[in-house]
Amino acid sequence: MNPLLQTLQPYPFEKLRALFKDIKPRAGFSPISFGIGEPKHPTPAIVRDAVVNALGGLSAYPATLGSEPLRQAIAAWVEKRYHLPAVDAATQVLPVSGSREALFALAQTVIDSRGAGPAGAAAERPIVLCPNPFYQIYEGAALLAGAVPYFANSDPARNFACDYSAVPEEIWARTQLLYVCTPGNPTGAVLTLDDWRELFALSDKHGFVIASDECYSEIYFDEASPPLGGLEAAHRLGRGFERLVMLSSLSKRSNVPGMRSGFVAGDASILKSFLLYRTYHGTALSTVYQTASAVAWQDETHVRENRAKYLQKFTAVTPMLAEVLDVRLPDAAFYLWANVRRTGLADTEFAARLYADYNVTVLPGSYLARTAHGTNPGEGFVRIALVAALEECVEGARRIVEFCRSLAQ
To answer: What is the pTM of this model?
Structure first.
């Protein structure tokens, strides 16, 4: 067996199941889960209808490159959303089977571990730099590509954006791939133009690839101020897409996580190599979902309606939780990153007792981070995914408030 598999850590939800294994929630409370970031809003009718109308495509193998109508739809959306000049649908866009699959596979394409010595010689292996807290796929992708993950801790003073200035020069010199997540999971932090200017300068100096995970980009709270994306930042700073790709998905934007439909866009030379890898990897998006995806990318009405639902939930829930926890509206995304230290409980204990007493599930922040540079930046926090209906989110928040107040008695 591949020995690198033994370097992988349990996924956060495996840890959560282990934490809850011997707990039986108190009777009288229906289960409410804020644990998994799985959209619960209904799938738009236009997307469902498109799937049904495209079922004849099941008789054909899908092309790894994706259909031309889908690539054209994605290119047009990228141009409009990020105020870009013409994006080449043939060379700068590649449909993928969800951003998660692509985030993992990209590292296998980009990382060159030749000459790095034996697997145990970590000091000689290339580095994949990740945010901390982070989406665990980044770490797994790095390890299985033969690289070493290095974690840049989030900074609460910067609304939990990473402090890249603290990364040593010798680390940047070994970095081959930088994962950024903007808006961030779990914190919701969005990189600023100054952040991007710093990262582009480092990429120019050291030659590493930047993979910008933007799967939460369409969940925000001000229609006039959508989150800045990596390609948009590059254009605004007068540069091309060299060593830069962004990844997006329909899962959160259009409430279709079961379609596993997304795309990668940016540097044409990277996408050319990525397409070669994917041709062998065999992960082409179904022709049925390619057709439905093109329909979804061409419609914004359902996306605005989706955002309005999230805004309603955040507006109702955030002030309630702020009475008992240190929490505030994130820059974007559908998570609240709540500091629970004032309760006197560790994040894991908070989650376990909340589940036992009120049948509400939240995810301990320490499960979403690694101890790096002397600290685990997720400790003392819980991630609350406001993905359920408004009434359920409000009821869950009410229970959390009651639980926290009971601790103070």
So the answer is: 0.95
Q: Which residues of the chain have pLDDT under 70?
A: 115-123
Domain boundary among 299, 319, 349: 299
- Partnered with residue 360 across adjacent β-strands are 32
User: Does the residue 280 lie in any domain?
Assistant: yes
Q: What is the dihedral of CA 249, 102, 378, 34, to 10 degrees?
A: 40
- Burial (Cβ within 10 Å: 0-12, 13-18, ≥19) of residue 83: exposed
**What pLDDT, on a 0 to 100 scale, did the predictor assign at position 122?**
63
Q: Is the previous residue joined to 131 through a cis bond, with omega within 30 degrees of 0?
A: no
pLDDT on residue 117: 55
CA atoms 384, 397, 312, 299: torsion sign:
positive
Q: Distance between alpha carbon 242 and the CA centroid of its chain, in Å?
A: 22
How many H-runs (helices) and E-runs (strands) does the chain carry? 14, 13
* pLDDT number for residue 248: 98
DSSP output for 282-305: T-PPPHHHHHHHHHHHT--HHHHH
The answer as to whether 363 is a domain residue is: yes
Look at residues 283, 299, 315 and tell me which one is the last residue of a structural domain: 299
- If asked whether residues 118 and 238 sit together in one domain, one would say yes
pLDDT tens per residue, range 290-319: 999 999 999 999 999 999 999 999 999 999
Contact 27, 5 (CB under 8 A): no
Dihedral sign from CA coordinates of 219, 223, 228, 230: positive
349 found inside a domain: yes
The domain total for the chain is 2
